[in-house]
Specification:
Strand order of the largest sheet: 5-4-8-2-1-11-14-13
Oligomer: single chain
Largest sheet: 8 strands, mixed
Structural class: alpha+beta
Distance between the termini: 29 Å
Length: 578
């Protein structure tokens, strides 16, 4: 039943969104009461067939645990540096290369887990020149180390591999390598792998809890093509038939943020006067896109100005900032943000908020670059906590709008995104099995943060908290609990019931009320977790009043019976008891 109810909610949400997006606003209020009820009923009947099994509780496998947990073979060593070298063969869509993995021994152990997904194959693993035995278990490869691993020591292994990596079917969501051509017939190749894992194209410790401290990536491509990867270009080696581009990242980087982008790129850039000094902002675009990119990429500078205001200094001054043309929509690769939104405002030309404000900026530039603070600077330790990346970055879109067009515009934008909320499953996923939560981590998560801003009721303190997060957890991996605790401390109040309601439950809290006489209003929270006690601002007639409801009845003296509304910037419902 739980799966069935979730599925009904998803279909209901899509029905609601259809009404909001495609029917005129004046028609919508008159049809929602009758038609939505009938469509919900039809959805329930439809889902009562055997297909309902598809919505039942997901089962997790041994492979899920090997990928998603801190296995004993991962726990004892700490990543320090990758030296990744890859050669690309466009003619047969294959690659070969090596990764030198430098690590520090935390606890004595002789078995190390490295990850690489089929159909790629590990050719050899060596330490100090000696070949090592490798036991394969799916994508996990367990390396038997011969040299005694001494706590505190720094060691290296060299992993050599080759093969044809998985071809991305629907990048960036179903990731892998994209092999395509530009309009001039030249190869146009890119990686994207957040969900599927970086081990889809290179051997790595494929778990987010342990970020590597620094990275060198060297990519060899046929002459006439260029590779753009993370960090700074430190050297180029040109041979008779191939060119190797050497890039270096000097700050911690999450595995899924490492990328290759190969094409007939041309470069332009600018210097940005930022909070930490001069920042290099470089743009690599296909030759055919150069002139329109020079105009359209002005949004990058606008983004940097707004987000440094809200979140603090750009976290990777040492590595610079890049926007890179890609043959898919885009992705938040650290210091190498990829772009494929067609040089148009909105999300592929559409306003996801339905308010008009979403057409004032290029969604991919603003959203994906926002991840430099929330995803790349502050990174989840488990994919179950992906809301830390997506909720804050979704909310950053409205902060961008607010910075340039005023607070009312930003608030209207974030409220407009509610039509995409499904309330299907909790936002936080299951830990240790590489399982993310609901896609509501975007729009519902953004509205949760906006609701918390209303609870705080102090815009200066709110901005201080956002900047404080990026300072407190600078270049760190974090848990949900760490973020919740930090925000509670900044607020000076217990926020746990609010986080439990919006992150761990699917219900939207409803303020229920009734008048027991002309001057007494009774109110409480329903449709909520038992401990829910969030303050909320009510509009009584023309007067705004803050109340502190719990799940038990409270009383409020009023001047007289009047219309009761909740401040619309809170993501809650309201219901008059009859």
């Amino acid at each position: 039943m739980e799966g069935r109810n979730s599925a009904v909610k998803v279909i209901t949400c899509r029905i609601d969104r259809f009404f909001l997006e495609y029917l005129k606003p004046k028609i919508y209020p008159f049809i929602t009461i009758s038609m939505k009820f009938q469509l919900r009923l039809l959805a329930t009947i439809f889902l009562s067939f055997q297909s309902i099994l598809a919505f039942s509780q997901e089962k997790y496998t041994h492979a899920d645990s090997l990928r998603g947990s801190i296995t004993p073979e991962r726990a004892w060593w700490d990543l320090k540096h990758y030296d990744l070298a890859v050669e690309i063969f466009p003619e047969n869509k294959s690659i070969k290369g090596s990764n030198t993995v430098r690590y520090q021994v935390k606890n004595a152990s002789q078995t190390l887990q490295i990850d690489l997904q089929e159909p790629l194959k590990i050719i050899s693993v060596t330490q100090d020149g000696a070949d090592l035995k490798v036991r394969k278990d799916g994508a996990a490869h367990f390396v038997s180390l011969e040299k005694k691993q001494v706590p505190g020591a720094t060691e290296e292994i060299v992993v050599r591999y080759e093969g044809k990596p998985v071809v991305a079917v629907r990048p960036p969501w179903d990731g892998g390598i994209t092999w395509t051509k530009d309009s001039n017939g030249k190869d146009y190749i890119a990686s994207s792998n957040q969900g599927i894992g970086s081990s889809i194209w290179w051997p790595t410790k494929d778990h987010p809890a342990d970020e590597v401290d620094s990275l060198k990536i060297s990519v060899t491509v046929p002459n006439g093509l260029m590779d753009v990867s993370n960090g700074r270009l430190i050297k180029t080696d040109k041979g008779d038939k191939t060119t190797t581009y050497h890039w270096a990242v000097n700050k911690p980087i999450n595995d899924y943020g490492v990328n290759i982008n190969i094409g007939d790129y041309v470069h332009f850039g600018e210097k940005y006067a930022g909070e930490k000094g001069e920042l290099d902002m470089d743009y690599y675009v296909l030759r055919e896109n150069l002139e329109k990119a020079k105009v359209h990429f002005k949004d990058a500078g606008r983004m940097m100005k707004a987000f440094e205001h809200w979140f603090g200094p750009y976290p990777f001054y040492e590595d610079g900032f890049k926007l890179v043309d890609a043959p898919y929509l885009g992705m938040e690769h650290q210091s190498s943000v990829t772009y494929g939104n067609g040089y148009q405002n909105g999300y592929r030309g559409r306003d996801l908020s339905g308010t008009g404000w979403g057409l004032k900026f290029d969604f991919i530039i603003i959203h994906e670059a926002g991840h430099e603070w929330f995803a790349n600077n502050i990174t989840y330790q488990d994919v179950a906590d992906m809301w830390i990346h997506e909720s804050f970055t979704n909310y950053s879109e409205s902060l961008f709008v607010e910075y340039y067009y005023g607070k009312d515009a930003g608030q209207e934008y974030v409220r407009g995104t509610r039509m995409a909320i499904a309330n299907d499953i909790p936002i936080i996923g299951k830990y240790g099995v590489n399982q993310r939560g609901s896609g509501d981590m975007y729009y519902k998560g953004g509205n949760m943060l906006n609701t918390l801003r209303e609870v705080l009721n102090d815009d200066d303190k709110w901005r201080e908290m956002l900047r404080g997060l990026n300072s407190e957890f600078y270049h760190q991996t974090v848990t949900t609990q760490q973020v919740e605790d930090y925000m509670a401390k900044a607020f000076g109040m217990d926020l746990q019931p609010i986080f439990d309601q919006y992150l761990r439950d699917v219900r939207i809290p409803i303020l229920e009320y009734y008048f027991s006489d002309e001057k007494t209003m009774n109110y409480r929270w329903i449709n909520s977790v038992a401990s829910f006690d969030m303050p909320v601002d009510l509009i009584l007639g023309e007067k705004k009043t803050r109340v502190k409801p719990t799940t038990k009845w409270s009383k409020l003296e009023v001047a007289g019976k009047s219309d009761v509304k909740v401040d619309e910037d809170y993501y809650v419902g309201i219901s008059k008891m009859r």
